[in-house]
Amino acid sequence: MFAYIIRRVFSGIIMLLLVSLVTFILFFASPVNPARLSCGKICSPALIEQNSKALGYDKPMIVQWGQFVKGIVAGREFPEDASLRKSAPETIATCPAPCLGYSPLNAETVSSELGPRIPVSASLALAAFVLWMVFGISFGIIAALRRGKFLDKLLVSAALVAYAFPTFFIGLFIYQFIALKWGLFPVPVYTPLTQDPLLWLQGLVLPAITLALVYLAGYVRLTRAFMLESMGEDYLRTAKAKGLAPRKILFKHTLRAALTPIVTQAGLDLGLLLGGAIITEQVFNYPGVGKLAVQAATTYDLPTNVGIVILIASFVVVANIIVDVLYGLIDPRVTLA
C-alpha cells in the first residue's frame, strides 16, 4: 500500500508539472503583452520594457516556467534583481514557498490572494459534498429497492427536474425568495469558522443547498443504476440463499460493490469544487476562489489565472490519489499493485 501511494504521488507531481507547462504556454502565448496590462492607461514603450524585465516576461517561456516551478518549491522575489535588492529593498516583493506568482494588477502575490479565499471555497464545497452524498446515495438506494414503484418514479423524476435547472437559477431563486422575499432564512454571509462556528454554519446552508441540488440528481441516478446492477450478481443470490439478513446483504455486499464508481465521480466533483464554485459564489457574493477567478478573467490578470488553474489541478490530483487508495478499502476485489 505504501509503495503504491508513493508511486501515485510521484505520478501526480509529474502531472502537475505538465499542467503548469501547458498553462504557461496557453496563457503567456497570448498576443497581448502582460507587461502592457500592468502599467496603466498611460504606458510608454520604455515603461513596458521596464515592466517586462522586472516581471521576467522578457525571458524565454521555458525559463519563466522553470522560475515558476522553483518558486513553488523555494519561493521567489519580484523583481529578481540583486542590485535593486541592495539599493531599494522596499520595492522587492517576497513570495515564500509555495509561490504561485505575482499579480502586478493587484500588487500582491497570488498566494496572498488565494490564502483567505481557499477556506471559503473549501467550506462551501465540503458542506455541499456532505449534503449531496448523504441524500443522493440514500435516495438512490431507496429508488433501487422500490424499482418500478411510485416512490422510484417520484425520486427519479424529481432528480431530473432538479438537474434540468441551471445553478444560477437555483441560486437566484433561493436567494431572492427564501432569503429576501419570504424571510425563511437569514441572508447568507460568510463568517470564518474560527470567528463564530454557528454563524459559519448558518451562512453555508443556502449556498450549500444550491450546489447540492445540482449534484444530488446525478448521484441519485448513479447510485440507483449501480445498485440495480449489483443486486443481480450471483454472489448476492448466494448470500440470500444462505439466510443472511437483508440489511447485511444491502450494506455489506450490494452497496459496497456499487460504491466504487460513485467514489470515483465524487472525488472528481469535490476536487473541482474545492477550486471554487464560480456561479454560486457570484450569486451569494462569497469571497472564494471562484469569485477571484471571475475577477482575474475579466481584468486579464494572467498570473492569478495561472495560479488558480494550478490550484484546481492540485485539488483534482490529490482527490484522485485518495480515490485510488479508497478502492482497495471499499472493494476487496481491487488489488493495489
From TrEMBL:
What PROSITE patterns does the record point to? ABC_TM1 (PS50928)
- Membrane topology of the entry: Multi-pass membrane protein
Primary site of residence? membrane
Biological processes annotated in GO: transmembrane transport
User: Where in or outside the cell?
Assistant: Cell membrane
Q: Give the matching InterPro entries.
A: BPD_transp_1_N, MetI-like, MetI-like_sf
Is the keyword Translocase assigned to this protein?
no
UniProt entry keywords in alphabetical sequence: Cell membrane, Membrane, Transmembrane, Transmembrane helix, Transport
Q: Name one GO cellular component term.
A: plasma membrane
ABC transmembrane type-1 domain sequence ranges: 118-327
Family statement drawn from the similarity comment of this UniProt entry: Belongs to the binding-protein-dependent transport system permease family.
- In its UniProt entry, what is this protein called? ABC transporter permease
